[in-house]
UniProtKB/TrEMBL annotation:
<dbReference type="Pfam" id="PF01037">
    <property type="entry name" value="AsnC_trans_reg"/>
</dbReference>
<dbReference type="InterPro" id="IPR019887">
    <property type="entry name" value="Tscrpt_reg_AsnC/Lrp_C"/>
</dbReference>
<dbReference type="GO" id="GO:0006355">
    <property type="term" value="P:regulation of DNA-templated transcription"/>
</dbReference>
<dbReference type="InterPro" id="IPR000485">
    <property type="entry name" value="AsnC-type_HTH_dom"/>
</dbReference>
<keyword id="KW-0805">Transcription regulation</keyword>
<dbReference type="Pfam" id="PF13412">
    <property type="entry name" value="HTH_24"/>
</dbReference>
<keyword id="KW-0804">Transcription</keyword>
<dbReference type="GO" id="GO:0005829">
    <property type="term" value="C:cytosol"/>
</dbReference>
<dbReference type="InterPro" id="IPR011991">
    <property type="entry name" value="ArsR-like_HTH"/>
</dbReference>
<dbReference type="InterPro" id="IPR036388">
    <property type="entry name" value="WH-like_DNA-bd_sf"/>
</dbReference>
<dbReference type="InterPro" id="IPR011008">
    <property type="entry name" value="Dimeric_a/b-barrel"/>
</dbReference>
<dbReference type="GO" id="GO:0043200">
    <property type="term" value="P:response to amino acid"/>
</dbReference>
<dbReference type="InterPro" id="IPR019885">
    <property type="entry name" value="Tscrpt_reg_HTH_AsnC-type_CS"/>
</dbReference>
<keyword id="KW-0238">DNA-binding</keyword>
<dbReference type="InterPro" id="IPR036390">
    <property type="entry name" value="WH_DNA-bd_sf"/>
</dbReference>
<dbReference type="InterPro" id="IPR019888">
    <property type="entry name" value="Tscrpt_reg_AsnC-like"/>
</dbReference>
<feature type="domain" description="HTH asnC-type">
    <location>
        <begin position="4"/>
        <end position="65"/>
    </location>
</feature>
């Protein structure tokens, strides 16, 4: 864990809300001049605290109106089996998140975005179920997003 001060925490809070904020606006917002502000941002990037910048895209606007959570059970719990599954799932563009989980009968949880139920069926039957080792699949369909955040809570101290 890297030691960060109040300015670093303010930078992180602001950039999580608006990653396109100019350095000048960021510096003005936290009460620093632009040069030290930029040095701090670069230091946070170099330390691996800021790991990237992305555009958030509306799936429905792109015609991806069906989102699902899929719990996957594997036949063997070996590093080789998990490595193979993870490499295979990383190559499927409809998968927007893959988590190795505990506390369920499943080993993985996937979040997928597809056009419709036909596209979901195609994804499930012709891609996911064909990965060696997949023995169980349980799907839940997302009806509505209640909370959707990308920003982490940053403690004051």
């Amino acid at each position: 864990m890297v030691d960060i001060d109040k300015f670093d925490r303010q930078i992180l809070r602001l950039l999580q809300v608006d990653g396109r904020m100019s350095n000048q606006d960021l510096a003005d917002a936290i009460g620093l001049s632009p040069s030290p502000c930029l040095r701090r941002v670069r230091a946070l990037e170099d330390a691996g605290i800021i790991i990237g910048y992305r555009a958030l895209v509306d799936a429905k606007a792109l015609g991806l109106s069906l989102m699902a959570l899929i719990h996957i059970s594997m036949d063997q719990h070996t590093p080789e089996r998990f490595d193979h599954f993870e490499a295979s799932i990383a190559d499927i563009p409809e998968v927007i998140e893959c988590l190795l989980i505990t506390g369920q009968s499943a080993d993985y949880q996937l979040k997928v975005a597809v056009r419709d139920m036909d596209a979901y069926q195609e994804l499930l039957l012709n891609k996911i179920n064909r990965i060696t080792g997949v023995t169980g699949v349980h799907s839940s369909f997302i009806l509505r997003r209640v909370v959707s955040k990308t920003a982490l809570a940053i403690a004051e101290n």
